[in-house]
Each structure stands twice: as C-alpha cells, then as structure tokens.
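Exam revision sheet. Question 4 asks you to relate a sequence to its structure. Input first:
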Amino acid sequence: MASIRSRFQPALLRPQRRGGAGKIRGILRLVEERWDEIEWDFQEILGLDALDWIRGLKPWPQFFRFVSRVQQITGSACHSVLLTDPALAEAAAKLPKSKNPPAFRFTAELHALRDIADLQIAQFAKDPRASMLPRPLTGADVLGLQKRQAAMNRLVSVFSPTHVDLTPKLSA
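Answer key, structure tokens:
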C-alpha cells in the first residue's frame, strides 16, 4: 500500500526529490495562513472543492496556479487578504508602478466604462485630446512603443551621437 501511495503521491510532496522539502514548507505555510480564504474562493469562484488537493485527488502544481489566479480577482477573499497584508504592502511599495491595468479580467464592460469616462473627461476639459484612462497593453502596443523608441534613438544618433544614452526612454 505504501509503495502505491508513493508512486501516485504528487511530485511536490516527495521530499527525496530535488527541491521537494522547500515546496512542502511553501504548501504548508500557504495552507496554514490562508486556508479559509482559499477554500471559500475555490468553492465560490471556481466551483471546486479545495480539499481535493489535501485528499490527493488533484495535483499540487494546479493548486498553486489556481491560488495565484484567484488572488488576482478583485473582490475575492484571497485578494482581500493580500490587500490587508502590511508586509506585502511594504514590498509592493518598492516595486515600480504600472501605468496600465492587467489584461486578466479586463472585460468588455470595463472597457466601455473607460470609454464613457474618457468622453466625460474630454467634455469637461473642453478638449477632445484630453488624457485617456489607461487600458491593458497589448502586444501591438508594446511593438509600437519599441518602434517609436528605435526611431527616437536613430534621430538622436544622427543629430547628437554622443547623447544617445541620454535619450528619454518611452514607457507605457
């Protein structure tokens, strides 16, 4: 029986494997600290029983993928815990701020609301070119920024080759 269990035990739980012990500690810490929120979100949002991973019915890598996604959903219990964690807030304050929202869960409704807000801002400012609210970046947006940056770098190198390193860096 023990050999059958070890054969089907998820790879993350096998301590004799490379890196297994650290992963077990990570699983235990996550389960101990956030189990109530994880269990609630898995049931409420994903329609899954979080105990299936404890029972060994589902693979642990999938558990981590689901937890990381659920944490990104505004209003989820896991997301709420992240927002109220002082240690995470301190670490996040040191990271560079993104000007654009993530594409994950940026729905057509959110896009329409931003369009309406842009129209109101333009009307209030009496300027149709008034600042637009940021949208998620697409691959085309990134390529456009890279092309504009390359063109600006070429232009500066023609007129002032010694100052190419001072060219402003475009960001989204």
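Marking note for examiners. Residues 103-136 form one domain.
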